[in-house]
Design goal:
By secondary structure, the chain is of the alpha/beta class. The chain has one domain: TIM Barrel. Helix content is 25%, strand content 22%. It has six helices and ten strands, in the order βαβαβαβαβββαβββα. The protein has helices spanning 11-17, 41-47, 66-75, 89-101, 175-180, 204-215; strands spanning 2-5, 24-28, 56-61, 80-83, 108-115, 133-138, 164-166, 186-191, 196-198, 201-202. The longest helix has 13 residues, at 89-101. The radius of gyration is 16 Å and the shape is globular.
Length: 216
Amino acid sequence: MIIKVCGMREPENLLALSELPVDWIGFIFYTKSPRAVDESLAGWLEEHAEELERQKRVGVFVNAEVDEVLNAVHDYALDYVQLHGEESPEYCQLLRTLMESTSMRKAKLIKVFRVGEGFDFKRVHRYSAYCTYFLFDTLGKNYGGTGQQFNWPLLQQYDGVTPFFLSGGIGPEDVQAVRNFQHPQLYGIDLNSKFEVQPGEKDIATLQAFVNALVK
């Protein structure tokens, strides 16, 4: 199972996280988020590429202009682009085509769907041709994390072939719940606010205890 920690931005916190058995690190490029990255982070990441080489990098965007996404993929050496807004299948197709048909850095796409009661899982199938992974998060009033879990059994309605990440309010006390959750397309989990000291800064000791318990 892939473990992704999202909402990272503090240099020392990033270095500490890089020592844990975490697979992917998420950076938020949505300016309204309290966890949005600073432009200066791009240079720092380049300088410390060797220390962070083990983890894949994910950029999180919300209804962003295509050029903004492509520039961030290049500047921050992103491996994945996570689309957290109302991006259409056509938008995903355009992004993928531009990255695959040019010499620019290539990043795979992750489409986020915010799940609540009555969510129509059939709508996700239109994205399968362009997105490598899906991420299912909790439905909220605003974009971004709510810190709350949705009803995970709803995911049994998902019968697609695209692997997905489970997100939304997963906390230190949820090791057994994650272990118990079964779905043939579950690929990983996404951790964020429940492991924070403050927005953008993670409690490394708590993360380490959770990850160690999950993977043992």
